[in-house]
Amino acid sequence: MKAQIFETQRLILKPLSRKHLTQDYVDWLNDIDVYRYLETGGNYTLDMLKDYLTDVEKKDIYFWGMHLKESNIHIGNIKIDPVNLRHGFAEYGIMMGEKSEWGKGYAKEATLRILDYCFNELNLRKITLGVVIDNTSAFNLYKSIGFEIEGIYKKHGFYQGKYCDVVRMALFNPNNNDK
């Protein structure tokens, strides 16, 4: 597996695998509050999740389950995929599944650790992401970390019964002068 285990102050990031197959994970994928701005969600089953996690293992990508250090509870996922080594950039994604842990700074904590890995170990020069403009908490998180708007795709995705703008954002490696 490409992904390795990382620790932060409060989290352990473990490579996403079939070990993450739980009813709680399925419930996240079926919870409108969780999948509201994601490309996937709704009508998931344990078998569907098992197939997905099996595929993740086969692809050997940078994809982690976020676990609380003190209890080992899986609270969400974070990934860097795809990675383009030729051009030195990668796409970031995150899902905070466990709603009882929302608003506690775990997304930022995990993101900062993964960005450090991308910039200082993988030597990437740029991380990109897309965020639905209506997802203000995610947008504000990315801005607070230093992501900048590169463009807006007008009425790009269909979420909650309407077409929404998607903001494309990027963060450059602060150690790389080839921006």
Brief description of this entry?
The protein is α+β, with helices and mostly antiparallel strands. Helices cover 28% and strands 35% of the residues.
Please give a handful of descriptors for the protein shown:
179 residues, alpha+beta, Aminopeptidase, eight-stranded mixed β-sheet, 5 helices, 28% helix, 35% strand, globular
CATH class category name:
Alpha Beta
Distance between the termini: 30 Å
Number of helices: 5
Q: Characterize the main sheet.
A: 8 strands, mixed
Principal-axis shape equals globular
Sequence stretches where pLDDT stays below 50 over 5 or more residues: none
- Per DSSP E runs of 2 or more residues, the count of β-strands stands at 8
Radius of gyration: 16 Å
The overall average pLDDT, rounded, is 95
Tally of structural domains: 1
Give the amount of beta strand, in percent: 35-45%
Helical proportion? Answer: 25-40%
- Main sheet strand line-up: 1-2-3-4-5-6-8-7
CATH topology: Aminopeptidase
- CATH homologous superfamily grouping: Gcn5-related N-acetyltransferase (GNAT)
Describe the protein.
There is one protein chain. The protein is an alpha+beta fold. It has a single domain, classed as 3-Layer(aba) Sandwich (Aminopeptidase), CATH 3.40.630.30. It is built from five helices and eight strands; from the N terminus they run ββαααβββαβαββ. The protein has helices spanning 23-29, 32-35, 46-59, 106-120, 136-145, and strands at residues 6-7, 11-15, 62-68, 74-84, 89-96, 126-132, 148-159, 162-172. The protein has an eight-stranded mixed beta sheet, with helices on one face. It is globular and about 45 Å long. The two termini are 30 Å apart. The relative contact order is 0.15.
